[in-house]
Design goal:
Layout (H helix, E strand, L loop, with lengths): L2 H7 L28 H15 L7 H13 L1 H8 L9 H18 L8 H20 L7 H21 L5 H8 L3 H10 L33 H16 L4 H12 L4 H8 L3 H21 L1
Helix pairs in contact: 2-3, 4-5, 4-6, 5-6, 7-8, 7-9, 8-9, 12-13
Pfam families: Sigma70_r2 (PF04542), Sigma70_r3 (PF04539), Sigma70_r4 (PF04545)
InterPro entries: RNA_pol_sigma-70_dom, RNA_pol_sigma-B/F/G, RNA_pol_sigma70, RNA_pol_sigma70_r2, RNA_pol_sigma70_r3, RNA_pol_sigma70_r4, RNA_pol_sigma_r2, RNA_pol_sigma_r3/r4-like
Keywords: DNA-binding, Sigma factor, Transcription, Transcription regulation
Length: 292
C-alpha cells in the first residue's frame, strides 16, 4: 500500500508533542508530509491553516504546523518547476527558489478569503521562479522589459508550435501577442544574451571529442594591419598637403623601410638633414590630426 493510500484510509493519530507551555498541538502527526497525495494535502492543509492561526508563533506546535504545510505542498513547487525545465538551470535550484514563494504564500494566506490555497500559492511560486531567471541568469545585462518579452515570446512560441505543428514566424508571433514585428525581432535578439558559452568549452564541430579544440582556439585575433590601414586613411588628406620631397622621404622611410643614411644617399643630402626633414613632416602631420 502506498503512502498516499494509507493517508486516505487510515485515520492519522494525534500529535503527542507539546508546546513549551504544555498545550497539545491537536494536529495529525505526519511522518512523511511530502508523501501525502495532492487530494489529501488540500484537505489537510485547510485543517493545518485553521489551527495555525490560533497558535502562538515560535511555539513547537506553530513550527510543526507551518513546516508540515510546507512539506505537504512541495508538489506545487515541483509542478511549477516543470515549466522551466528547458531553461538550462538545475532543477534543484528552481525548486529551492520556488519553495521560497511557497513559504511566502503560507505566511500570507488567509482562510477567510474563501480562496483555495493552491490557487493562492501558485502565483507566488511562479513569481519567485521568474524573478530568479530574470535577475540572476542572464549572461549580459538586458532591460527588464526585454527580459519579460523573452518569456512572453517563449510561451507564445510553445502555444503556436502546438497548434501549427511548426515554429512560428515573427509575424505570427506578433499577431498572437498583439505587438509589432519589430518588437518581436528585438525580443528574439535580446534572448541571445540569456546564456553565454564558455571560451574554454569544446567547439561545436559535430564531434563528441572532449579533447578537441576549444572555442577560444577558433576565434580570430585582431589583425594589426587594420590599425595601419585606418591610420593611412586618416593621414591621406594631410599627406596630400606636403611637398613632393617630403612625401618621397616618408615613402622611402616607411614604405621602403630605408634608413636615414640610405635616403640621404638617394637624395644627395646628409643623414642629419634627412632626420630634420623627417621630424618636421611627422610633427606637422601629428599636429594636423590632433587639431582635427
Amino acid at each position: 500500500m502506498t503512502p498516499a493510500t494509507e493517508m486516505s484510509t487510515v485515520e492519522p493519530h494525534r500529535a503527542e508533542a507539546e508546546t513549551s507551555d504544555g498545550d497539545v498541538a491537536g494536529l495529525p502527526q505526519l511522518d512523511v508530509p511530502s508523501a501525502v497525495a495532492p487530494k489529501d494535502a488540500r484537505r489537510l492543509s485547510r485543517l493545518f491553516f485553521e489551527r495555525l492561526r490560533t497558535l502562538e508563533e515560535g511555539t513547537h506546535a506553530y513550527q510543526y504546523a507551518r513546516n508540515t504545510l510546507i512539506e505537504m505542498n512541495l508538489s506545487l513547487v515541483r509542478f511549477a518547476a516543470a515549466r522551466f525545465r528547458h531553461r538550462g538551470q538545475p532543477e534543484e535550484d528552481i525548486v529551492q527558489v520556488g519553495t521560497i514563494g511557497l513559504i511566502k504564500a503560507i505566511d500570507r494566506f488567509d482562510l477567510d478569503r474563501g480562496v483555495e490555497f493552491t490557487s493562492f500559492a501558485v502565483p507566488y511560486i511562479l513569481g519567485e521562479m521568474k524573478r530568479f531567471f530574470r535577475d540572476t541568469t542572464w549572461a549580459v545585462h538586458v532591460p527588464r522589459a526585454l527580459q519579460e518579452l523573452r518569456i512572453r515570446l517563449a510561451v507564445a512560441g510553445e502555444e503556436l508550435l502546438a497548434s501549427l505543428g511548426r515554429s512560428a514566424t515573427p509575424q505570427e508571433l506578433a499577431d498572437h501577442l498583439g505587438i509589432g514585428v519589430e518588437e518581436v525581432i528585438e525580443g528574439q535578439v535580446a534572448a541571445n544574451g540569456y546564456t553565454a558559452d564558455s571560451l574554454d568549452g569544446a567547439s561545436d564541430d559535430g564531434e563528441d571529442d572532449r579533447d578537441g579544440p576549444r572555442l577560444a582556439d577558433r576565434l580570430g585575433d585582431c589583425d594589426p594591419t587594420f590599425e595601419t590601414i585606418e591610420s593611412l586613411h586618416a593621414l591621406k588628406p594631410y599627406l596630400a598637403r606636403l611637398g613632393t620631397r617630403d612625401r618621397r622621404i616618408l615613402e622611402m622611410r616607411f614604405g621602403e623601410e630605408l634608413t636615414q643614411s640610405q635616403i640621404g644617399e638617394r637624395l644627395g643630402i646628409s643623414q642629419m638633414h634627412v632626420s630634420r626633414l623627417l621630424s618636421g613632416c611627422l610633427r606637422r602631420l601629428r599636429t594636423a590630426l590632433v587639431e582635427d
